[in-house]
Amino acid sequence: MKRIVTFDVGGTFIKWALMEDLAIVEKGKVPTPRTNFEDYLEALKSVVEKFEDIEGLAFSLPGTIDKKNGFIVQGGALEYNHGREYQKEVEAYFGLPISLENDSKSAAICEHEMGALKGIDNGAVIVIGTGLGCTFILNGQVHHGANNSAGEISILLAGDIFKEKFGAFLAEKCSSVSMIRIAKEVLQDETLDGIKFMNLVQEGNEKANEVLDICLSELAKAIFNIQIINDLERVVIGGGISDNELYMERLKEKLTSYYEAFPFPIPRAQIYKAQGGNDANLLGAAITFYKEHE
After folding, report:
1. What pLDDT, on a 0 to 100 scale, did the predictor assign at position 277?
2. Sign of CA pseudo-dihedral 239, 241, 242, 244
3. In whole angstroms, what is the distance from residue 7 CA to residue 46 CA?
């Protein structure tokens, strides 16, 4: 296979990897420029020029990606990517072929090809972090949707939008960041982080367990509704919080309670932990490139 550099572009860092045959030869990261596209290209160049014989570049990117036209509809936290002819401009700058895919979908591609969704035709990957990234695999294919925005479950309504505004969105109820924010308020402890919070849950702290129960109730309800609509075989949970076994067990228990409360039986999706780890987006981007440039 081709020798490529693959990029996982985030709001703070651009992770990169030199890859051959889906094997990571070398990897690192550079700060993500937040000012303009020219500085962004220079940051990419500082990585690419380290290596010789590069045959292409693969990108995992935030925002809404129109893969067919190589266009970024909106660039998420990177506003200079809004409405950008990304593929055309980057290929012209480097003189190399590129591929581009949304970051959440890159993670799902990794899981489908070599992780917890391998061999599964109908599933979903939910990455829990600042928000909730979600990608559906339907009939063995990544589902992009009519406008390339399928899977935006962060903005599912989990409250009264007329009263709560953004607070009604699912991400504001159960993302990792929101869960800790709520816990800080309830426990009146500004030093809380994810590890300390889950330790309190493990120790039986009543208020910490109440916060976790509320957050998991909303997440389980969303998974239940997704299952009703899509009839999935498996739902994979990613993000740092998925490494906590207690969190995963409590999520499974909460989802089971919804199934059991339902007045008639429905097929239940299995809940698995993501296997791609921190390199999932890099690997998913590389898989996309190799498939598009065989």
Report:
1. 86
2. positive
3. 12
177, two tokens: 């960041």
Q: Measured between alpha carbons, how far is 258 from 40 in angstroms, rounded to an integer?
A: 46
**DSSP H helical ranges for 115-244:** 161-164, 171-174, 176-187, 194-202, 206-230
- pLDDT tens for 254-283 read 999 999 999 999 999 999 999 988 899 999
How many residues are given for the chain? 294
Picking from 80, 5, 88, 86, the residue whose alpha carbon sits closest to that of residue 47 is: 5
| Alpha-carbon dihedral angle through residues 66, 154, 13, 282, given to the nearest 10 degrees | -60
Nearest to 250 by CA among 194, 192, 211: 211
E strand intervals along 103-164? 123-128, 132-138, 141-142
